[in-house]
Amino acid sequence: TQSTWGDQLSRSHTMSWFRTAFCGYSVEFSPFEENKLAVATAQYFGIVGNGRQYILDTSSPDGVMQEVATFESKDGLYDCAWSEENENQLASGSGDGSIKVWDLQYQDYPLKSLEEHRNEISSVDWNLVAKDSLVSASWDESIKVWNPHYDASMHTYNEHTNCVYTTIWSPRRSEVFASVSGDRTLKIWDINSPQSVQTILAHTHEVLAVDWNKYNEHQVVTGSVDRSIKLWDLRAPEQEVQTLQGHSFAVRRLKCSPHYEHVLASSSYDMTLCVWNTAEEDPLVSRHEHHTEFVVGLDFNLFVEGQVASCSWDEKVCVWDMQQAPPPMPIGMDDPQHPHNGPRTMSQTGSQPSDPISM
Questions:
Q1: Which residue in 38, 11, 19, 22 sits closest to 309, CA to CA?
Q2: Contact at 8 Å (CB) between 146 and 124?
Q3: How far is CA 334 from CA 67, 70, 90, 95, 344, in A?
Q4: What was the pLDDT predicted at 117?
Q5: 200 near 210, Cβ under 8 Å?
Q6: What does R_g of the chain's alpha carbons equal in angstroms?
Q7: Which residue pairs from 103-107 have beta carbons closer than 8 angstroms and sit at least 24 positions apart in sequence?
Q8: Per-residue b/e over 60-94, b at no fewer than 16 CB within 10 Å?
Q9: Strand 316-321 to strand 155-157: parallel, antiparallel, or no bridges (unpaired)?
Q10: 14: pLDDT confidence band, cut at 50, 70 and 90?
């Protein structure tokens, strides 16, 4: 049952840290290898500067992840997604509006650069079912669907009236995806239709995050600058099924568990990551405060039940079992002379986030 799901998890999972040179924006576990993790990063909080796409091995026994590969970009990288058809390839969304497709066998340059968006790429997601299509969202208010084997996009959608923050494919239907935007809406799309097939005014402020329930194709979850998380049944969209309250600033990313129908995780500009079980009377299972800046990246490991990865503007990546506290940071990782030391974080400069922001 859902009430005992935590008791079923193994305690032998890898728990480790890594220090990036730039601010972390996105993490995604490989769909092919349980110990491989992609991390998209941007210099100077993503405002100006370069980007770096990391590929990490999480299996190191000393608690420190090891670099498998890095890819350099002239602009910040704000999201990443592994290919579902080639274990060596992944895509990164760049601040210059391009999508870089990388191959681990060709580390000197991108395999392809998809260049149609006019502004920062905020989201990229590879189709779990069709496997040869990619959906992207941008601050230019558009959504594009691509076959990464070709240079031109297959579809472009321009219905949103503000930045589109997240797009994600349905885990069950190859032609369907969801999007959320600064216009406060959640939209459902079918690539066989030129317009969205459903629009829900989901929150009172900008909507930054969305994910599909992996066990219920009719349920999606959204997270907003209004600090709330909402569960929606697309068959009855007039009102949310449930609202989760617990973050004190904007909810930046949401991930539904690949192993448990009622479990999801959220990360926030309040510098925390929360784990929820929506089947419980008190759905907030745990709150993790292991980062010292905005927690922007979050993912579940498909192969290891209960294993979660997070990344933050504090230049740290952490992998741990969500039923335990994150592991202690290795000695020296916060040292200014650490080999991966990057620009100073906001905490080190004395500045702190105040109001929820929608970056």
A1: 38
A2: no
A3: 18, 21, 29, 28, 11
A4: 98
A5: no
A6: 19
A7: 104/55, 104/68, 104/69, 107/69, 107/70, 107/71
A8: eeebbbeebbbbebebbbbbbbbbbebebbbbbbb
A9: unpaired
A10: low
CA dist., res. 203 & res. 185, Å (int): 7
Q: State the amino acid at position 235 in one-letter form.
A: R
Six token digits for residue 263 = 């479990």
If one counts every other C-beta atom within 10 angstroms of the C-beta of residue 125, the result is: 21
Distance in angstroms (rounded) separating the CA atoms of residues 336 and 317: 17
- φ, ψ of residue 157 in degrees (nearest 5): -125, 135
Confidence of residue 10 (pLDDT cuts 50, 70, 90): very low
pLDDT of 241 over the 90 cut = yes
Residue 54 CA neighbour count, 13 Å, CB half: 27
Q: Are 15 and 30 in contact (CB under 8 A)?
A: no
CA gap 44, 323 in Å, rounded:
33
CA 211 vs CA 49, 178, 252, 330: distances in Å: 30, 8, 12, 32
